[in-house]
């Protein structure tokens, strides 16, 4: 794979097709819903935005960016995106409301962590008995955090939960304010990775969230070829990121307007095996049995809180046939040497 200024050969090719056939060449348009401040997903999107990957597959990708999963779900429910990149909790909520959407591939694992102020006397999870924990209640971060605390032998009935979203946490932590009686917080990357790299927190424990690629009913029923082309592009984006983490990290930080080091992004990506893969053949875009179990745990967590119907089963909305076809045909491997970054 080459990294240099992109030569506009694609436009010349389209011109020649139009000249010789008398017909314009139209790319497949796909509206991609993504979350601008979310690493490592953000670097994967930058690989698509700053390379010729879409052109290699005759794709016209419209990048529809959101701050977090809630507004992205609203856009999906309103027919505003064709494909979206999201985590297990918002995916379950979306699919329970709009059951035409399907989970078509694994995107990545992302970290959620439990952390304390630097210098705290609390250095292990088993010290959180009777503690006050703060974070985005109802999100995957709460689910993973409470599971880790319970696994450490802490009686959860002794723990008090305080709602504190990531922006509110950032105000306290970056501003150097007192944590106002909060013993530990929980949240999701990239902010904990950034705070830790800056020496502002100590991380007690991190756990994974299964994040996915979902596609609309139209994509899976009427535009299957276009969906396979997109998944091939996504596979290429993973390989492009694997080979160029610093370039794409800088592009992500610039668009997300985050002040962070590349080391913090590496820390956020450390939970994802694809980021450390030795070669393209080692990249995994499908689900393990453990991944499916995690999706079911996420579903039960939301059902227990009345957020989604009791009869909803997330695995009924899984369709991995498209990504399996792409991987079997080795479509991305045939194109990787032609990928260039601008």
Summarize this structure as a short list of keywords or feature phrases:
10 strands; disordered N terminus; single chain; alpha/beta; 8-stranded mixed sheet; 342 residues; two-stranded parallel ribbon; 43% helix; 15 helices; globular
Strand line-up in the sheet with most strands: 3-2-4-9-5-8-6-7
Give start-end ranges of low-pLDDT stretches: 2-24
Instruction: Supply the helix-strand structural class.
Output: alpha/beta
Largest sheet: 8 strands, mixed
* Quantity of strands, as a count: 10
Order of helices and strands: EHEHHEHEHEEHEHEHEHHHHHHHE
Distance between the termini: 12 Å
Helix content: 40-55%
Strand content: 15-25%
How would you describe this structure to a colleague?
The chain has helices spanning 9-21, 41-49, 53-56, 69-77, 88-97, 140-151, 166-174, 191-197, 217-221, 224-243, 245-256, 262-269, 289-304, 321-329, 331-335, and strands at 2-3, 28-35, 59-66, 83-87, 102-117, 132-135, 160-163, 184-188, 201-215, 340-341. It is built from 15 helices and 10 strands. 45% of the residues are buried. The longest helix is centred in the C-terminal third of the chain and has 20 residues, at 224-243. The protein is of the alpha/beta class. Mean pLDDT is 91; it is low at 2-24. The strands form 2 sheets. The chain has an 8-stranded mixed beta sheet with strand order 3-2-4-9-5-8-6-7, with helices on both faces. It has a two-stranded parallel sheet with strand order 1-10.
């Amino acid at each position: 794979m080459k990294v240099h200024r992109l030569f506009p050969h694609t436009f010349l090719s389209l011109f020649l097709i139009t000249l010789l056939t008398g017909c314009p060449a139209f790319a497949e348009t796909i509206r991609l819903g993504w979350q601008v401040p979310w690493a490592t997903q953000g670097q994967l999107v930058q690989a698509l935005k700053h390379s010729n990957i879409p052109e290699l597959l005759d794709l016209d990708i419209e990048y529809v960016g959101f701050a977090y999963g809630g507004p992205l779900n609203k856009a999906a429910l309103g027919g505003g995106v064709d494909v979206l990149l999201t985590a297990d909790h918002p995916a379950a909520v979306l699919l329970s409301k709009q059951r035409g959407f399907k989970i078509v591939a694994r995107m990545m694992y992302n970290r959620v962590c439990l952390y304390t102020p630097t210098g705290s006397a609390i250095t292990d999870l088993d010290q959180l008995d009777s503690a006050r924990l703060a974070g985005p209640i109802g999100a995957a971060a709460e689910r993973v955090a409470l599971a880790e605390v319970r696994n450490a032998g802490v009686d959860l009935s002794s723990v008090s939960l305080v709602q504190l979203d990531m922006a509110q946490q950032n105000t306290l932590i970056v501003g150097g304010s007192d944590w106002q009686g909060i013993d530990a917080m929980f949240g999701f990357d990239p902010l904990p990775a950034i705070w830790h790299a800056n020496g502002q927190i100590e991380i007690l424990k991190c756990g994974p969230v299964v994040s996915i690629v979902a596609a609309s009913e139209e994509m899976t029923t009427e535009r299957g070829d276009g969906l396979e082309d997109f998944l091939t592009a996504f596979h290429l984006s993973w390989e492009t990121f694997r080979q160029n983490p610093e370039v794409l990290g800088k592009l992500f930080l610039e668009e997300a307007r985050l002040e962070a080091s590349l080391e913090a992004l590496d820390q956020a990506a450390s939970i994802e095996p694809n980021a450390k893969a030795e070669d393209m053949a080692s990249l995994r875009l499908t689900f393990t049995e453990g991944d499916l179990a995690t999706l079911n745990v996420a579903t039960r967590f939301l059902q227990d809180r009345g957020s989604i119907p009791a009869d909803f089963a997330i695995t009924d909305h899984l369709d991995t046939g498209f990504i399996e076809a792409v991987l079997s045909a080795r479509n991305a491997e045939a194109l990787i040497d032609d990928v260039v970054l601008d």
